[in-house]
Amino acid sequence: MSDFIQNSEITTLQLLRNRPLMEIEAELETFSYDRKITLLLPSLYSEFEGPAMPKIISHLSTIPYIHRIVLSLDRADRKQFESVKKQFEGFPCDVKIIWQDSPEIVETYRYLESQGFNIACQGKGRGVWFSIGYILSKRDSKVIALHDCDIVNYDRRLLARLIYPLVHPSLAYDFSKGYYARISNGELYGRVNRLYVMPLLMALSKIFGKLPFLEYLQSFRYTLSGEFAMSTDMALKLRIAPDWGLEIATLGEIHSLTTPIRICQVELMDNYEHKHQDLSPGKDKGLNKMVHDITCTLFRILSQDGLIFTPAVFRTLRVTYINFARLAIERYHALAQINGLRFNRHGEISAVENFSAAMSESVEKFMKNPLGTPLLAAWQRVIAADPDFNNRLIELIDGMNE
After folding, report:
1. pLDDT by residue (tens digit) across 178-189?
2. One-letter-per-residue 3-state SS of the chain
3. Which domains are seen in the chain, by residue range?
4. Total-model pTM
């Protein structure tokens, strides 16, 4: 059993009991008549070759309340696209697969670039953005939910709990963020969140004092979770980061679009297990790539709020971060000990050292280009620029799935 404390500006909906799944799904099925739900799944084709995606498909095939599933499929050829389509045949809900590598969609991206929109490079963020555009164009959903496709221990309760605060008529939330523990093979994971993001936020608060946005971010128990849901009204105004800054940028956008009382976080499951990224020290990939993108995104948002970053501030920030990261290691060591988990102190310290070095590289990138990677435009702007684009988008995606 989790705690039940509400001690931040963000409502926290803990997992207090194993409520019968049939009970919560029956409610969701009733509520979804008026508030239709679309599930967005950003996926690589390689995830269909592993253990996670077949299990996820099996669970989703029996869920009664989903109106539509939109799967953004990246890194797939035509044969693989057709293979994925077959795996969703016979589903009780409408399923649309957006084949990101198709000539038609590549040409659509070129068109948008010709109209002055930055489209960035292929990846999860761009796939999420394009899929949201299609969902909004259909105009028949009120809630969009998103979760990753590499969850090894997927359970349909995850989705039910994630969307419940947005679908229940007596709850008035615009945005729901998932959280959970990360344990694999008897060891704590979630290193970027545990050992980088949270200590960094504490260090920034130490230097700049209590700032609303920093307090807001620190309210989330898993800032980098890939599971969230939002109203379509919110999605229409949302700008999307195309890189690993997606989660931080999304929280930043939500913070500017609504009030904290309309935001909640939900404990989705006892433990969440998916594929793990490598540390890859000194290379712009793996967890270090995540650190680069997250850091630059965070600095950009704070700069927009008027914070001034100087070389002296960055030097102090790195030292302060290391201090808070060391404290985090001691805390997680105690947590591991009391729960009988393995704890690799050397590995934890090495991760902090790698993250600290990556932070310095991120600072150099940020100083050269404070605006960073441009966010993908909100869909209300795209439609304003081309009022008929949503109709062509529907024709494109629906035709692709015939």
Report:
1. 999 999 889 999
2. CCCCCCCCCCEEECCCCCCCHHHHHHHHHHHCCCCCEEEEEEEEHHHHCCCHHHHHHHHHCCCCCCCEEEEEEECCCHHHHHHHHHHCCCCCCEEEEEECCCHHHHHHHHHHHHCCCCCCCCCHHHHHHHHHHHHHHHCCCCEEEECCCCECCCCCHHHHHHHHHHHCCCCCCCEEEEEEECEECCEECCHHHHHHHHHHHHHHHHHHCCCHHHHHHHCCCCCCCCCEEEEHHHHHHCCECCCCCHHHHHHHHHHHHCCHHHEEEEEEEEECCECCCCCCCCCCCHHHHHHHHHHHHHHHHHHHCCCCCCHHHHHHHHHHHHHHHHHHHHHHHHHHHHCCCECCHHHHHHHHHHHHHHHHHHHHHHHHCCCCCCCECCHHHHHHHCCCHHHHHHHHHHHHCC
3. 11-400 (3.90.550.10)
4. 0.94
